[in-house]
Design brief:
Blueprint lengths: L15 E3 L2 E5 L5 E3 L5 H46 L10 E4 L5 E13 L2 H15 L6 H10 L10 H9 L7 H11 E14 L8 E2 L8
Antiparallel strand pairs: 1-2, 2-3, 4-5, 5-6, 6-7
Helix pairs in contact: 2-5, 3-4
């Protein structure tokens, strides 16, 4: 006589079997018998789990696509380097490759991640000294820029763009040059991050349009 094997299907996501009875875990960590959970709450749970399942799969596919894209571009650049004994790419590894008809392009951009050392406080003190000495001669625009540059946001980050604007000002009156030297010394490159962007256009004279891989912009 053949032995009959009974296959028991795994419970649906979100369902936990306790002594053969289905339960659902609530936000407080308690196991609630499924029969006591309101129908709309069960439907909401199922909807969220379904969407998250698709989102996780899509996220993994995009991650693999991103990795393959960087590998493909790097392989192409290495082939050119072997052929021409050089590198095709801009500063800090920035690279743009374009289709033969000039209607498609892939741009790999490298963005440095910056931090600021203790010299930043020295720079701020020197800039404050300048503003105090020039209180009658400093323009409202300069005062606003200085205040904006050293302002810390909610995440505790300094406004980098405003700091770099300060460095571009051509002020030779002391101690401003010293302040800008201290500001330059404060900059620390702590790493870099690669970004890849995709573009297309209808013809070689058309305007480039970004191919978005972004839910917010899709």
């Amino acid at each position: 006589m053949e032995t009959q094997i009974e296959y028991i299907a795994a419970p649906p996501a979100g369902i936990i079997m306790v002594e053969g009875k289905p339960h659902m875990r609530d936000a407080g960590g308690r196991l609630v018998p499924e029969e006591l959970v309101k129908a709309e709450h069960k439907l909401e749970d199922q909807t969220v789990r379904k969407i998250i399942g698709f989102a996780e799969d899509l996220s993994a596919r995009i991650s693999r696509f991103r990795g393959h894209t960087f590998d493909d571009v790097a392989s192409f650049v290495e082939l050119l380097a072997e052929k021409y004994d050089g590198k095709r790419g801009g500063a800090k590894g920035n690279t743009t490759i374009t289709s033969y008809d000039g209607c498609l392009k892939v741009v790999v951009a490298v963005q440095e991640q910056l931090s600021f050392g203790p010299e930043l406080q020295v720079a701020k003190d020197l800039v404050d000294e300048c503003i105090a000495a020039w209180s009658d001669g400093a323009t409202p625009e300069l005062l606003a820029l200085v205040a904006h540059a050293f302002q810390v946001d909610k995440e505790g980050r300094i406004n980098r763009a405003a700091l770099f604007q300060l460095r571009r000002l051509d002020i030779k009156r002391e101690p401003w040059p010293q302040a800008m030297t201290a500001l330059g010394d404060a900059i620390r490159v702590i790493g870099s991050r690669e970004y890849v962007r995709f573009y297309k256009r209808p013809n070689p004279r058309g305007r480039w349009e970004a191919i978005t891989i972004d839910l917010a912009a899709a």
